[in-house]
Amino acid sequence: MLSPLTRSLIKIFAYGFFRINSGFLVFLFGMLISYCFFMNTVGDVKLIPPEQLTYYHFIIVINFISSPLVTLIVGLAWLIYAVKSWIYVTKQLSAPGNQFLFYSITSLSKIKVLKSWFLTQSVIFAPLIFYWIFAFAFGIAFHHYFIPFLILLYLLLLTLVSAVIYNLSINSLQNEHARSYLINLVRDFRKPYYTLFIYQIADKMKIGFILVKIISYLIIAVSISSFAEPYSDLRVAGLVMLAIITGHSFMIYQHHRFDETRLSFLRNLPFKRYRLFFNQTLVYLWLILPEIVWLFSKFNFFMSIIALFLGISTALLFRSILYWTGLRMNRYLPLVFLLFILEFYTVMFKLSVPLLIFNFVLSWIIFLKKYYNSNVTIS
Q1: Which of 66, 187, 230, 288 is most buried, taking the most CB atoms under 10 A from its CB?
Q2: Do residues 166 and 187 both lie within one domain?
Q3: Which one is predicted more confidently, 67 or 368?
Q4: Half-sphere exposure of residue 247, counting CA atoms within 13 Å on the CB side?
Q5: Is residue 173 within 8 Å of 105, Cβ to Cβ?
């Protein structure tokens, strides 16, 4: 029996999330079902035994439970879905019509509140849970057990982290105007423009940043284990950095949101655009500093430099498309996932150097065209 709080949270946030994203979810579900049941293999389908035809029809699901690389890609897609739900719920928490929840939630024990948020996020994750059940059934049929178990742990971790984020968000409403200890500590320090977002992370976004770093560690572990000789192949270094930057797409979005909502007055100051563009590069170098140290410790200098420039150029491209899409997450996340897939195959074809040049040039062109004419619409 669900508690009154849980029923209220599900009705307000879970059902609201599905109403906003129903078209996108129906499209993805229809595309997956169509692919599984109506895909034909190359060549004459009559030559394929019936028992193998089922295998080919469900090749995506089978790869999901047997290939670490495909699991990584799907895991990133699930993370993007989770981030989208975090942004929606935290935005709705601050809406005037939902302020009554603050008094209801803070009067209950933390365990009960976390349980309610956990169940609410489980409803939001219903499409992912159904897909996991579907994949788990295939895992039993084809004797793949380890990866489905890891996927279940990953799904539980995302759900628990979501519950913690929501609980912290609603508890922070009463203190949002209070000066934090960190601000008092660094108030006399010099603060170059590119460091402002770093302070914002340390002050207001610690949980999200820690989660992103956990995802980075998982990306590195899964990517390296997918190749026989990972540290001698430039493609591995490039793919790892590409996946790491995609995992940081949430922080890139928050960086743009911070600039647009808190620092928009900077457009009236006489800063050169090349300097502002270079400041973005410094921000992303700081964000992935632990990953950079790992990269140079495992790969030779030449491969590390190319992979690093590929990662930074991809981060700049992700940031630049936000000047085009605005703060509309429903446009930004699909573009990020599409770019990840395209760049993934480009790196696999050993075109990392042309790709990083293309990313730098395209991101610079978009930045020049859109910086003073950006779309700041919030989804």
Answers
A1: 288
A2: no
A3: 368
A4: 26
A5: no
